[in-house]
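#dry-run=false #mode=assembly
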Amino acid sequence: MAGLPFDKEYHIAIMADNKKLENELRVLIAEIVEIEPGKITPTANFVEDLGMDSMMALEILASIEKKYKLRIPEENLPKISDLTKTIEIVNKFLNK
Amino acid sequence: MLLKDKVAIVTGGTRGIGRAIVFELVQNGAKVLFTYLKSDESAGIILDEIKELKGEAEAIKADVRLYDEAKKVTEETLNKFGKIDILINNAGIIKDKALMMMEPSEWLDVINTNLTGYFNMSKACIVTMMKQKSGCIINMSSIAGIVGMPRQVNYSSAKAGELGLTKSLAKEVASYGIRVNAIAPGFIETDMTKDLKQKDDLVKIIPFGRFGKPEEVAKVVTFLASEKSGYITGQVLKVDGGLAI
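#status=ok
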């Protein structure tokens, strides 16, 4: 990217972490929603596409908090709507 | 000690029924954080009295009409006591007037304090309770929300709304071990009723022939907050001396 220092190793590390995080979250969510992990594509909406009860967002949030020893404020609950957005939130609070 | 080591929030805890609830809960072993809107002095006196009883309580000035303030109340409770077992939505006001004379602002003030305040506090507490997989919410409604009262379309509407909130939320969170109930007091001896002009006429239509005492309402709160009512949710318990039978 123009104007920004490019640290290849750093980027690879982040991407590797993100892939690991994505896989871990996919398994965690699949267990809660009780579906095959493969069905949880990055943008599949948990409620509309995967048939998740909207209340399950709290189960996902609580499980994430426990697994990564995080505290994610409940205002973020509506954002737990697909895998990509969930990864964004977890990354945000992992970096805090 | 029906509520030993339980943590309770009581909104509007410095006067009338709210004050009686605070003392009743403390005397049953609960740790109580109560809110108040105006009088620091009243809150301080209550805290001193509770200290003399060797009870544990905190007070916080908060306007529950605002969600951010409700959130502040729950955060303060969690910081101080680490959990929230019981929420008593009680803070309320009246602005009685015939509909033709009632200003839109008087409608909104009453709806915002009595109904939106209950929504705000319930929302601010519910995720904590859901994570705990336990909790108890008691909404202090009124028989005005069941039978209707002249010159109280604002208050009656808010109180009826609280019953809808109670029943819907009870169904929504039952699977998380959270119970939501309402109490509908009749005429109780408080500041809110002390200036009623038609008091003698009202007493005549109460089968018990008298107004209730705040403590008589508070004891029902303890019952609904305790395990003795562990299989009761979504209910409205009238405490009205038979007025609305």
